[in-house]
Amino acid sequence: MVLLRYLWALPYTLMGLLFVPFVILSGGRARVFRGVLELDGPLPAFWLRHVVLVRGAAAITIGHVVLGRDDRALAVTRSHERVHVRQYERWGPAFVPAYLIAGLWAMLRRKGAYRGNYFEQEARRRSGRGGGA
Ligand SMILES: [Zn+2]
């Protein structure tokens, strides 16, 4: 069953893996922590600080890959980001469209696309903290 969870989330994990060579070549690090590949370093830090959709986040989950600004950010956001990993495993290829729809729905209800997003609320509830993205 573990294999199925990885296969179901694989399309997004593959997208996350595209970051690996760029993170490594720019002086960052990659390591596996409890079945999830965690990347951090200058490139993820720049990306998380400046790219519009994730601006200001400490970390972001893409399938079974988590990009964090640095080691501390990965540690602080780990429980929150692991809830997102479980969401990718549950929703598979439908996760990102579902996340975007939930964000739009939250925005229409004036709750904030991020704060009011069902998936972020679940991540906050289950992890007990705000997390990265
Ligand atoms: Zn989140």
Unreliable segments of 5+ consecutive residues = none
> Mean of residue pLDDT?
94
| Largest sheet, spatial ordering of strands | 1-2-4-3
Query: N-to-C SSE series?
Result: HHEEHEEHHH
Main sheet summary:
4 strands, mixed
Strand proportion, as a percent range, falls in: 5-15%
Percent of residues in helices: 55-70%
Distance between the termini: 27 Å
- The coarse overall form would be globular
Structural class, by secondary structure, is alpha+beta
By DSSP, the count of extended strands is 4
Continuous helix count: 6
The tally of domains stands at 1
Radius of gyration: 14 Å
**Ligands (ions, cofactors included):** zinc ion
Fold and architecture overview:
- The chain has one domain (about 1-125).
- It has six helices and four strands, in the order ααββαββααα.
- The protein has helices spanning about 1-15, 20-25, 40-50, 70-90, 95-110, 120-125, and strands at about 30-35, 35-40, 60, 65-70.
- The chain has a four-stranded mixed sheet.
- It starts with a helix and ends in a 6-residue tail after the last helix.
- Zinc ion (ZN) binds near residues 84, 123, 131 and 133.
- Zinc ion binds next to α4 and α6.
Give a short synopsis of this structure:
This protein is an alpha+beta fold and 133 residues long. 57% of the residues lie in helices and 14% in strands.
Key traits:
4 strands; 6 helices; binds zinc ion; 14% strand; alpha+beta; 133 residues; four-stranded mixed beta sheet
